[in-house]
Amino acid sequence: MPMEIRQRKKGSLIILDLSGDIKKPQGTNELDAQLCELVESGHKKIVLNMSKVGYLDSGTVGTIIATYKKIKDSGDLIIVEPSQEVFDIITLVGMDSIIKIYQSEEELEQG
Questions:
Q1: What does CATH list as the number for 4-110?
Q2: Whole-angstrom Cα distance, residue 50 to residue 84?
Q3: Cβ contacts of 72 within 8 Å, gap of 6 or more
Q4: Residue ranges per structural domain of the chain
Q5: What digits encode the pLDDT tens for the residues 32-56?
Q6: What are the angstrom distances between the C-alpha of 75 and each of 4, 14, 23, 69, 70?
């Protein structure tokens, strides 16, 4: 399934609703471009809603980690609602030890 990115604002958060399979070259490049634009525009809290993502490749994992490193001192990169497949990949590569993960947007809002 082709990847789609929809952007929305919720309070101080910029939420990217991602769907489809995120893999090289197109998906990873599109996500990287959008994340870079947000960081360069000064956004400090970026949320990746991955409830409709079926697959992440290693390039996408690298893009997410690189973005986290760019904003970790002055902001936050957060993952919400990862599908089971995405959660398995996130935990396998250890991203859950550096990036906050919430099971829902409501959980994120609470804490």
A1: 3.30.750.24
A2: 10
A3: none
A4: 4-110
A5: 999 999 999 999 999 999 999 999 9
A6: 24, 12, 26, 10, 9
Single out the residue of 18, 17, 14 nearest to residue 2, CA to CA.
Answer: 18
Element (H, E) at 36: helix 26-40
Quote the DSSP letter at residue 11: T
Q: In whole angstroms, what is the distance from residue 5 CA to residue 33 CA?
A: 11
For the chain, the residue count is 111
**DSSP track, 48-100:** EEEEEEEEE-HHHHHHHHHHHHHHTTT-EEEEES--HHHHHHHHHHTGGGTSE
Q: Is the pTM of this model over 0.90?
A: yes
* Distance separating alpha carbons of residues 54 and 40, to the nearest angstrom: 28
Contact 64, 32 (CB under 8 A): no
Report residue 69 as tokens. Answer: 């490193």
